[in-house]
Amino acid sequence: MQLKILIEMKHGLGDCVCDLPMVCALRQQFPDACLAILVRGEAQETIFRHSEAAVDRFYHWGIGGWWRRICLIREIRRERFDYGF
Fold first, then answer.
1. Which of 3, 27, 37, 42 could form a disulfide with 33 if both were Cys (CB 3.0 to 4.6 A apart)?
2. Which pTM was predicted?
3. Which pLDDT tens digit goes with each residue over 24-56?
C-alpha cells in the first residue's frame, strides 16, 4: 500500500520557499509515497513544481468561493491521507 502525505501550504510565497527543504526531505525519506500539497494559488504551485520535491498532486484552496472549498475538502477527505502536515 502506498503511503499518502498531504502538506498544507496556504501561506505566502516566502513561507513556501522556506518550507522547500522540508518537502524535499520528505520526498527523500519516502520516495515511493504520494506527496500532495494544498496551495493557495498558482504561484505556490510553481515554486514547488520547479523544486526537487517532485510533488505528485496539487490542491488549490484559493480558487472559487465557499462551495468550491467545501467540495475540495470532501475530495481531500476521500483520498484518506495517512499523514498531514
1. 3
2. 0.88
3. 999 999 999 999 999 998 999 999 999 888 999
